[in-house]
Amino acid sequence: MQYYVLIPLLPLSAFVLNILFGKKITNIFGESFKIGAHWISLLGVASAFVLSIIAVKDVMDGHVVNADLYTWITSGNLRVSIGFLIDQLTAVMLVVVTSVSLLVHVYSIGYMHGDKGYYRFFSFLSLFTFSMLMLVMANNFLQLYFGWEMVGLCSYFLIGFWYEKKSAASAAKKAFVVNRFGDFGFSLGVMLVFLTFGTLHYADVFQGLPGIIGQKITVLGFRTDLVTVIALLLTCGAIGKSAQLPLHAWLPDAMEGPTPVSALIHAATMVTAGVFMIARTAPIFNASRTAMVCVMLIGGCTAFFAATIALVQNDIKRVIAYSTISQLGYMFMACGAGAYAFGIFHLYTHAFFKALLFLCAGSVMHAMQGELNIQKMGGLKKYMPVTYWTMLLASLSISGVPGLSGFFSKDEILLKTLASGLPFSGVVWVLGMLTAFLTAFYSFRVIFLTFHGKFRGHGELTHHLHESPPSMAFPLMVLAVGAVAAGFVGIPHSLGGHDAFARFLEPVVGEARSEGSVAQQWVVMGLSILASTAGIAGAAYVYLKKTDLPQMVAESFHHLHSLLYNKYYVDELYDLVVVRLFYRISRGPINRIVDGRIIEGVVNGVPSLIAWSAARLRRVQTGVVLHYSLVMAGGLFAMVVYVLARLWKVI
Amino acid sequence: MRFDYPILSILIFLPVVSGILLIFVSRRFERAIKWFALTAATLTFLFSLPLFMNFDKGTSRMQFIERHAWIDDWGTSYFLGVDGISILMVLLSTLTGILCVSISWYSVKDKVKEFYIALLLVEGFMIGVFCSLDLFLFYIFWEAMLIPMYLIVGVWGGPNRIYAAIKFFIYTLVGSVLMLVGLIVLHHVADTFDLLKLMNTQLPYNLQLILFWAFFAAFAVKVPMFPVHTWLPDAHTEAPTAGSVLLAAILIKMGAYGFLRFSLPLFPQASVAMAPVMLVLSVIAIVYGGLICLAQSDLKRLIAYSSVSHMGFVTLGIFAMNGYGVQGGLLQMINHGVVTGGLFLSIGIVYERTHTRQIADYGGLASVMPIFAAFFMVFTLASIGLPGTNGFVGEFLVILGGFSRNRLSGVLAATGIIIGAIYMLWLYQRVFFTSVNERIAGLKDVSLREGLTLLPLLILVIWIGVYPDFFLSFMGTSVNSLLARLHQGPLDQSNVMNGVISGAGAFVK
Amino acid sequence: MVPLNWYIWLSAILFCTGMFGFITRRNLIIMLLSVEIMFNGVNVSLAAFSHYLQDAAGQVLVFIVIAVAAAEAAIGLALVILLFRHHETIMIDEINEMKG
Amino acid sequence: MIEKAFFLYFAFAAVAVSIITVTRRNVMHAVLCMLLLFFHLAGLYLLLNAEFLAAVQIIIYAGAIMVLFLFVIMLLNLREDVKKVQYGRLWFVGVIVVCGILLAMAGAYVFMVPGQRSDWTIGRIVAETHTAAIGQVLYTRYMFPFEVVSLILLVAVIGAIVLAKRQLK
Fold this sequence. Notes:
The structure holds four protein chains of four kinds. By secondary structure, chain A is mostly helical. Chain A has helices at about 5-30, 40-60, 90-110, 120-135, 140-160, 165-195, 200-210, 225-240, 250-255, 260-270, 275-280, 280-285, 290-310, 315-335, 340-365, 385-400, 405-420, 425-450, 470-485, 500-510, 520-545, 550-555, 560-565, 570-615, 625-650, and strands spanning about 65-75, 80-85, 215-220, 220-225. In chain B, a hairpin with a 4-residue loop joins β1 (about 65-70) and β2 (about 75-80).
């Protein structure tokens, strides 16, 4: 057996051990002696991380693995196996997943300390790691789908980790169900892929792809391009998982889960699965211009849309959540523009700084006794310096300050979008630029409101304010290094680098559609630097100098503010149109009328009709002999007449 | 493959004879009666294992055949055998038998002896249904099973049990009577009840249509398909736990099994012609059954309606009439038996403690009974078809089958997955999450006996989910030969409406 | 020689008279008497046919009818006694225990 | 001619008497009229050369059955019933039906075709004596009905006793 089989298997066994025996371990060793359930998970994930590094090295040496483990489902032509494909793309994902997961595991030791579901938390984290690894290592669509759904399940478990809270339970369900809407399209896409190509293995599908380009298919009476339909169906799944418009509504609610979960699942790894999937199936998307434009438009709109909402939110985790949606929009933009490598590059850098942002937020929450409202914070800089400095680095990175990792990836995306030459690419590029400005603004709004100025919270809280324990601080520092340096692997040519990251991924996802002219490169870079500095400066001016300005702006643009503050009323709309409608239909027409009246009416109606007619018929039995004799005589008469009539005919 | 001992007869008559023997045991020895019933059920299960081991997966012929002369004048004989379509159902029946005995250990308190007699009789007759290769014998088992089942619902059921039992009985009886008429017609034409001989008889198309609808009446009620499903929620809700489990796991599979065993091979052209109608009904059942779950406030009723939806997948798969669909449908039959059986067992466990089935009376159960919550979670996930559980494999194959037969039916069936997730997770949330409802505070978690009852099903959920090939390999050959038979005749799909009309006309005549 | 028709007309009229009594009278004993009249009406025609067709079978039938009439009268009257004991009346439409 | 005269007398008397029977308020009167009817019918049987039947008519009907009726009437106290309305409420319907049947029968006679004559001529009956003739037919061809009738009578005897007995221990 090859070592790579162990990469998902180790976290899986950690999960099994933990879920079965975790409680006992915790009980035996007790809270004080800190050999808790986390060691099993930690061990599993750490070894997976080490093996991933080995795998990356192997891939760099040119050993691409594509091997089947065993046959999962056989039915007719359908042969699906559980197998592993480890190429450059997978290698990147392996590193991202296992490293962030490992750090979040370490962080959780401190963060979840004393929670009664301690072992449960770690077992689910391990299960998530396993599922995510299965997702990225899959060598066929169905296994991808397996991982896809399993990470959704883990997300469900972990969002609803504090299930006693009704909001947490509802958010968990919402996340799962909204994702199911996306998966609906995804699963149909997988089926269409199978029916078109007769196989679900990536390699075979991509091989058969040239043969079906130009084929038509009838969908609801329209004849459309087959590849486009497949690509759009796959996009459905990606939209759901990566929280793009219009299925983004679950991600902000998902912040009900513990913060490490938000960092790992709802920022760094799971939500990027959509981007990963698009990159993985890049040949299919490349074959359909329509699908690419769709993806790019969705990405651009989502990026801008989410960034505007993030401007006015007061819940620190929600701001970061909307920022995640917005950054995922960038990745979609990149994929849509055909620059898959840069989408993945942004995914990779984003994983570090976004996980860091979340973990810092968790650290702040930890100190603030669970308070999330940034309006009630302030001046935390002096109490928690590690958290402050790391979060500042992350914010600088996300804002795209030159030299930090976020700068390289975002800049490249904007450039490649502009250069792609696809329809609407200009519009999307403008949206991306605006988003860059907004991103810098809201990121620093959080920084300034949280760490600068005076403490605006409850007076008593000041006694509790303290830096987080080392197990939490250590991951912050490691991630901060990542947030700063992760981008160095992909320094573009124009800055004297070699674009090493994109070169590395080229065998899998191909080159970008166009490098863009030198002039474009410099203009885009300049504009994006301008946007980020403007955003930071604007935030500093508004939230440090003129602290009453936000209030004034909010009042004078009252409608716009409440529109943004209420997230464009999307939740309310969905509640009205989807949720209510479902329940209405179910309760009224279906349950009460069709089932209750019509079907049950017929079913119970037949016996009651019989009973009714019997009640009428029994009146014939008067019990009076005279009536019976009369009827007998009448019968006799009738018989005689009948016989006579027959005789009459004969004669 | 033949044994030197009649294994199928043993499987059928071991429980039946044990049930009859129990009649002579005094009702005072309750413990002895329970242990006896458990032993009988376990022995039956153990006897079914050699069947499993020695089954030859490479052939579509009937195996373990037993044939004895019975009533020669009518062309009927005592003829048993299994193939890839029925063997898994036999195994599921024997397994379910044990679980039903075990789950009723303390929950059935009065008329204990009679209860176990009825239970054992049902088990034996059910196995008989799945093994019979003679239509007359099949009909006898089919009807015989109804009587003890009627008693289980009507005697040991909930407050509204009489209504439910009578409804169940009349519904199924009406269907069965039409099937009986069909049987007689079939015998009149072919002069035999022997299934294998009948399969070699080419019936005229119009006759096939009539017979198809006659058999449809019986099978559709059992499945239950869309307009004739309303007995199911009532019967499930009122039945005792073991009754619900038997209903869900085995009894309603008999309808789908009937389609596969009789309707499709005996009336191939009619089945092909009527398949679109069946597909429409199946899709309606999937969506309708799922939507109606959202309006339910009773745990068992909700699961019962979800059965309607899931059985819609089964019939969709069968009438998709391609390898994926039929195999998926068959696997989905097993899956639904395992999963819904598990859900009903779980509800029985908690009902024994709280004596309420109203969802509103629960809440926060996960804090009170964590192990139970874990079990229920797995069954819930399997029910919504999460990959890695058995539900996914079945649903995927069925939808794939439906999709390749008719895209729209596949798409609509796939919406069933969304709806399924909504109602099951909503149910789970209302029962297990949020703060602890005071009515259920302090309940004991599952006992060892209850855990052991649920565990086999849990293992099956994961096993089929992770390595379904083991189970699919049993069916492959049989399904392929069935499909080959189905598609050998002239396919005339354009003439469906004419078929319906002439079929109806023939009925009138 | 009396024509056969005359006997048959007589038989018909007697039969109808008996039937009239049976249908219209409320008194159970009278009804029984009416039945006897109907029997007799039939007997007349049987005997007449026997004579005109020179067949002894007709008379044998009359013989059998008389025996059955006797049995009927015995059972009927026993029932009358029983009814009278229970209801203090033999007016038949006052007794409707068999009403559905 | 004299035969016709006798027939007409017996026939009209029988009809008149039967009408009187069914219309009496007093049951006793009805029974006595019924007796008269039986005697007249016996006369008709004589006209038909059935002297054995005439004897049976008088012995069994008049002698046994009517006596049974008389006993029962005397056993019951029918004073109340005598005062009540004697005809059912639907009597006119009865009349219509009866008239209808009479008409229908009349219609039927139009088509009446006598069957084939058999071999029991007057001469043969006279030669064998009437009783012996009936006996020959009754105990050969009609043996089975005869046995059945005997069983019916047995049942009637037992039934009548069981029904009319006051209490069964």
